Amino acid sequence: MSNSNVLYQHGTLALLVPGLLDGTLTMKDLLSHGDTGIGTGEGLDGELIILDGTPYQVDSKGNVNLVDSEFTLPFANSHFADYAEMLEVEDIKRDDLQKQISETAASNNTFYSVKITGTFKNMKTRAVQKSSQPYKSLAETAEKQSIFTKDSVEGTLLSYYSPQLFDGAAVGGFHSHFMSDEHDFGGHILSFESVTGVVSFQQFDSLEQHLPTDNKDYMQHDFSQDNILDDVHNAEG
Amino acid sequence: MSNSNVLYQHGTLALLVPGLLDGTLTMKDLLSHGDTGIGTGEGLDGELIILDGTPYQVDSKGNVNLVDSEFTLPFANSHFADYAEMLEVEDIKRDDLQKQISETAASNNTFYSVKITGTFKNMKTRAVQKSSQPYKSLAETAEKQSIFTKDSVEGTLLSYYSPQLFDGAAVGGFHSHFMSDEHDFGGHILSFESVTGVVSFQQFDSLEQHLPTDNKDYMQHDFSQDNILDDVHNAEG
After folding, report:
1. A6-236, what's its fold?
2. ipTM of the shown complex
3. Which of A166, A207, A210 sits opposite B205 (nearest CB)?
C-alpha cells in the first residue's frame, strides 16, 4: 500500500533514552513503508537518510555508506514522497526559515515533512557512535558523538515535524538529517546559518506507530524510571 | 486491509479538552478500520461501543441506541477482533483484576485490548451530554454527565490499554466502555466492584493515529494554552 498521507514510525524516541538499541526492523521493511526517511542503526549506528529509495548512513567517522537491506534499526521514520514546492528562499537564516515554514504550513497539529534542496552555509551535523550490548544510554552516547562542519555545502535537508503532543514518542517539532549532493557529508543537523534553495512540503493525516513487540528488552522495560523528555531534548537538540 | 495487529485511532484525547468536538469521521469510516471499538459522537454525544460490527450509543438519558453509518465522531478507536482467552475470573475485585491482567499480559509498552464478558457487581457508568457549537470544554461537559448504576448486570466490558508515553494522544492506561447483554445499560465505566466471567486479550504492534486535518478548528487551535493532561485525567477518571 503506497499511501502518501501516512508517516510510518518504527520504535519511539523514548526507547533510545535507556539504551534499548537492538535493531528491531530491517531496512527492507522500512523501505516497504516509504522511499524517503531518517533513522539510526542498531546500537545507534550512525545517522541514516533515505532519499529516492536509496538509504545512506553517515557513520561516526563521517563516512557516507550505502545501507544494505538486512541492516537493522531501533528507531526510524519513512514515508512515500509526494512533496509540493512551498517556497524558494535566498540566504535565509535557519530560525527565519523555520518560522516561515511553520506559518505557511499552518500544520502545527499534524505530522508533516519538509525537504530542502540547495546551498547551506555553515552546516553543522553530528553522527552518533555505535555501541554494543550492554548498550549505552542516549546521554552517554551523546557525549561521544562526532561533529562535522562545512562552510558551504550543496545538498538535501530532510525533516519531519511532529506535534508537541507526540513529543517523546516522536521528536516534537522538527527532526532533520542532511546529505550532500556529493554523498560525502551529512548527519543529524545540529545547526546551519542560512540556505538558498527550494523548500518542499508534504502533510500527513496519519502516523503509523509501529512498536518492537517481539523484543523482550523493550517489552519488559520500566519506562517510569527514565527521564525521557529531558534526556531526549539534551541529546537531540 | 484487515490487520488485527493494528489499533486505529481517530482524533486525540487532547482535542476534547478545549472542545474541538466536530464530528470528523463517519461511523462507516470507523467500521472500515474495525469491527470492535469505542468512541463518542459530535459534541460529545454519548458513549459508543462497537461489538461484533454493531455500534451502540448510550446517550445522556441512559438510552441505548443503534448508531447509523452517517453518525460522526470527533474521537474513536476501532480494531479487528482476534481475541484469545486469557483468564477465567470469579468475583474478582476491579483493582485485583487490572493487576492480574497487567501481569499476565506483560504488555505495558504496547497497545492492547481486553474484552470481559460476565456478570459485573455494582457497575457505575457515565454518559456525556451532547453540546452544540460553541461546544463546551471537556471540563464543562464532565460537570453535566449522567451517572448510571446497576447492582448486578451481565454484559461486555471493552477496554483499550495505551502506554503512558501516549497519554494525551490516547488515554494512558485503560479506557473502558460497557454494554449489557440486554442492550439496556452501558456507558463509559467509572467503576465496578467485581466481576465473574471470561477475560480475553488482544495485543497490537501498531497504532494508526489518524488526525482530522480537514477540520479548520482543529488545525488552527493553539494547544499550548490547554492544560491537557490534568483536564483529561479529571474527566476520564
Report:
1. 60s Ribosomal Protein L30; Chain: A; (3.30.1330)
2. 0.96
3. A210
